[in-house]
Amino acid sequence: MSFLNINNVSHTYFTSRHVTKAIDHISFTVEEGEFVSLLGPSGCGKTTLLSIIAGLMQPTEGEISIDGKRPHVQHSSIGYMLQQDYLFPWKTIEENILLGLKMMKLLNETSKHDALQLLADIGLNGVEKQFPRQLSGGMRQRAALVRTLAVKPKVLLLDEPFSALDFQTKLKLEDLVFDTLKQFKKTAVLVTHDIGEAISMSDRIVLLAAKPGRIHKIFNVPEELRELKPFSVRSKEAYSLLFNEIWKELESLETDE
Q: Most CB atoms closer than 10 Å: which of 103, 129, 130, 135?
């Protein structure tokens, strides 16, 4: 059995006036240590699917398993990183990155040391006693990454975590996150609308069609690109070829709507 299993998952939103099917019979697997991106037009259910994987909501149909168990958002097996860093402004960076450990009753001298060491490893040594307002957007996202990884999750879920950053900071953080996940052999699922980001960071890309969200096509990123840092990937011919292929598929989806 694969590490992450999405089996025949559908989800419908009900209101007093409308019934909307967000995703329809989605099935795919993710191996341990693999990085998979969810890509697609607006309304294809990327964030809905990620929320179901995280255990934030139960699917109307189908099931999810992570390492053989149903996902639960309060378990340390799942790390969730969002577009906003959601650091508490009245807490220091140290207090923020230790918050998850404290809430899950995992905070001790060893876990605290490991979290602070990770903070230093990603270039934030010396900011422990500062507050979020004293850091740049990119630095705050790095601190948010440390908070997420501090609980040592088995799978990391990334919901457009770089989209609010300027392009230069975004490229630097892509490299940083890529290196960090490879170092700790983390399994990751990224939601993005950026084709370049999906190609440069992923092993595979799941392209979803919209209304309702469903799998249109799954792309395997060439082996030669997977070993490179995201910034370096963008200069390769294989990157351009895959970018154009995915672009054409996205255009065909929009034409069909």
A: 135
pLDDT digits (tens, 9 = 90+) for 210-250: 989 999 999 999 999 998 999 999 999 999 999 999 999 99
The residues with which 204 forms a beta bridge, in sequence order, are 36, 220
Q: Give, in order, the Cα–Cα distances in Å from 157 to each of 36, 105, 154, 197, 242.
A: 10, 22, 10, 15, 24
SS (H, E, C) 141-160: HHHHHHHHHHCCCCEEEEEC
CATH of 1-77+156-177+187-257, one of 3.30.300.180, 1.20.1730.10, 3.40.50.720, 3.40.50.300: 3.40.50.300
Spatial separation of the C-alpha atoms in residues 178 and 188, rounded to whole Å: 10
Give the dihedral sign, CA 165/177/147/96: negative
